[in-house]
Amino acid sequence: MPALLFVCTANRFRSPLAQVMxxxxxxxxADAANWRVESAATWGDPNLPAMPEAVLEANKRQLNLExxxxxxxxxQLVKQFDLIxxxxxxxxxxxxxxxxxxxxxxxxxxxxxxxxxFNILDPYLxxxxxxxxAHEIEDQIEKKFPLLFQWLISNPEKY
Length: 159
Hints:
42% of the residues lie in helices and 12% in strands. By secondary structure, it is of the alpha/beta class. It has a single domain (3-154), classed as Rossmann fold, CATH 3.40.50. Strand 3 (83-86), helix 4 (89-98) and strand 4 form a beta-alpha-beta unit. Helix 1 runs parallel beside helix 2 and helix 1 (14-27) packs across helix 6 (130-154).
């Protein structure tokens, strides 16, 4: 079963949006029933709802984040995923140092599948529009979905 984890700082805007956007693409794809797609926080508080702006952006796309609750990343959690996609270089560096056993499975969302690395910034810290950040995540998911799907189906790492 392919397993994909999206990670951002608080697990309340970027990674939950990426999760539901990817899950929607999967829903429309044959042979995707056994996938596991989740999201987590690097440094946030657990069990908090998605930010209202994330819920709004999800709703604009007929996606649902109403039941989302944040969760923290852990060694136990990362071991369960074939691929871990983060939003910022700082996330990647921190996770690779904290979890060296899964270092080779951690990528920026922007760089995976041969993309040019760049940060998808937290709109609450950067001042970027939540709508613009949501569009950026959506664009990355749209562009990378076929390659990610094929790669994870063909080459999942078994741990």
